[in-house]
Specification:
With about 260 residues, the chain is mostly helical. It contains ten helices and no strands. It has two domains: about 90 residues, no CATH class; about 130 residues. Helix content is about 70%, strand content about 0%. Helix 1 packs antiparallel against helix 2, helix 2 runs antiparallel to helix 3 and helix 3 packs antiparallel against helix 4. The protein is elongated, with a radius of gyration of 33 Å. The protein starts with 12 loop residues before the first helix and ends in a 15-residue tail after the last helix. About 10% of the residues have low confidence. Keywords: Membrane, Transmembrane, Transmembrane helix. This is MNN4 protein. It comes from Microbacterium profundi.
């Protein structure tokens, strides 16, 4: 007796194996396309984490090097924050400007702090305005020491305007707690800065620029400034520099009779 023929509709072992291979291939394709589809998100997440870590590292380095008066190192670290500056965008130019002020690059510091000011919001503007006013005050000191009293007075006036436009919220305890130096009173600093600028402006206005030759009779008989007042002004500037060096001996900050930027 012969065996009965197999039913044509029943799956064979070969068919099952082929179906399994096809299913595996579909799963692999799905996983591959899922990986490709999520790859941009994965890269973005890694960049996000990397940027946060680098910002913290650069900011920490900028602060620590500034404290030990390594202003070149502080500037370099702060400049590292400028790449893909997405988070708290004011901090990179603010830190660069503060470091440049420490190294007495006043023009460069002013440019960076002026760049940071419109990027700051809320209480962030407090420290930016204070440092910007201090930098311009130092520019005024340099002008006065160079014999340009009117130019110094104008710079002191600009610094006073910046100080006067500081929001009232900057005089609060919350502003102190959020400042770069929580142990330093923002309100006291602003008051002292304003008083100092007014005094310097008044003194600088009394100092006359040297006359130019060939400007008529007034140049032939120039009005000489009061030498006693000039000597008094210079003594006060020198005294301010000495006091600042004594008070900040551990900080190694530059002289000039002003506060140290934060």
């Amino acid at each position: 007796m012969t065996d009965a023929p197999a039913q044509s509709g029943a799956p064979t072992q070969a068919d099952a194996a082929a179906a399994l291979l096809a299913a595996n291939r579909r799963r692999r394709r799905i996983r591959r396309w899922a990986l490709i589809g999520t790859l941009p998100l994965t890269i973005a997440a890694l960049l996000f984490v990397g940027k946060l870590l680098s910002m913290y590292a650069f900011a920490h380095q900028a602060i620590t090097t500034y404290v030990v008066a390594d202003y070149a190192g502080s500037t370099a670290a702060a400049e590292g924050q400028e790449f893909l500056n997405w988070f708290e965008p004011y901090k990179a130019p603010y830190n660069v400007g503060t470091a440049l002020a420490g190294s007495e690059d006043l023009d460069g510091a002013r440019v960076k702090l002026e760049e940071a000011l419109p990027l700051a919001h809320g209480l962030e503007v407090c420290a930016v305005r204070v440092n910007l006013a201090i930098v311009i005050e130092r520019q005024g000191d340099a002008a006065v020491n160079g014999g340009d009293g009117p130019g110094g007075a104008e710079l002191y006036g600009e610094a006073l305007q910046i100080t006067a436009e500081t929001p009232e919220e900057c005089n609060s305890e919350e502003a102190d707690s959020q400042s770069p130096d929580p142990d330093r009173s923002m309100s006291d600093t602003l008051d002292e800065l304003g008083d100092r600028l007014q005094e310097k402006q008044q003194q600088a206005q009394e100092q006359q620029s040297p006359p130019q030759e060939g400007d008529g009779e007034e140049q032939e008989q120039p009005q000489q400034p009061d030498q006693d007042k000039l000597d008094e002004l210079q003594d006060k500037l020198d005294q301010g520099a000495e006091e600042r060096e004594q008070n900040q001996g551990d900080e190694d900050g530059p002289g000039g009779g002003t506060d140290k930027p934060w």
